[in-house]
């Protein structure tokens, strides 16, 4: 399985991990911990190749790096759903994002790989 596909599966795995979301709509959000805006660093992973860092900028852009091929993306947030569109192609939807997001999240992809990220 390609590294890009593993990352996409990883993000899709958010659907299975996060509980009910809430909150209003935003496009890119603000710098508040209640949104995904910010830098997220990998703390631990049970296996597989996960990005070492994911950055969501407040202007609706972002990037991934380390562990997977680096890429940039644009993103929008509508309530508990984040849609990421990668420069190299492909779209990933993260559903049921909790509100507030908090400073630590544990994600599980559809292959069972678990990864914990903390807000930098």
Description:
With 120 residues, the protein is mainly beta. The protein has one domain (3-119): Lipocalin. It is built from two helices and nine strands, in the order H-H-E-E-E-E-E-E-E-E-E. Strands 1, 2, 3, 4, 5, 6, 7, 8 and 9 form a nine-stranded antiparallel beta sheet that branches. A hairpin with a 4-residue loop joins strand 3 and strand 4. The termini are far apart.
Topology, please?
Layout: H1 3-12, H2 14-17, E1 25-26, E2 38-45, E3 53-56, E4 61-65, E5 71-78, E6 81-86, E7 91-94, E8 104-108, E9 114-119
Antiparallel strand pairs: 1-5, 2-3, 2-9, 3-4, 4-5, 5-6, 6-7, 8-9
Distance between the termini: 29 Å
Secondary structure tally: strands: 9
SSE order, one letter for each helix or strand = HHEEEEEEEEE
Class computed from helices, strands and strand pairing: mainly beta
Integer count of domains: 1
Look up the CATH topology: Lipocalin
CATH top level assignment: Mainly Beta
Q: What integer is the average pLDDT? A: 73
- Give the helix tally: 2
Described by strand count, sense and barrel closure, the largest sheet is: 9 strands, antiparallel
Helix fraction by DSSP (H/I, runs of at least 4):
10-25%
Residue share in β-strands = 35-45%
Radius of gyration: 13 Å
- Overall 3D form: globular
The CATH level-2 architecture is identified as Beta Barrel
In the predicted model, the low-confidence regions spanning at least 5 consecutive residues are 13-32
């Amino acid at each position: 399985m390609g590294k890009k596909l593993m990352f996409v599966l990883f993000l899709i795995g958010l659907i299975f991990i996060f509980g009910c979301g809430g909150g209003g709509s935003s496009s890119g959000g603000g710098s508040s911990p209640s949104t995904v805006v910010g830098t997220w660093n990998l703390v631990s992973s049970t296996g597989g190749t996960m990005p070492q860092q994911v950055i969501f900028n407040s202007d609706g852009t972002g990037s991934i790096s380390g562990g997977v091929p680096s890429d940039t993306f644009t993103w929008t947030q509508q309530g508990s759903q984040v849609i990421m569109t990668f420069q190299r192609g492909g779209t990933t939807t993260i559903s049921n994002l909790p509100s507030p997001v908090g400073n630590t999240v544990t994600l599980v992809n559809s292959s069972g790989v678990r990864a914990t990220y903390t807000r930098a």
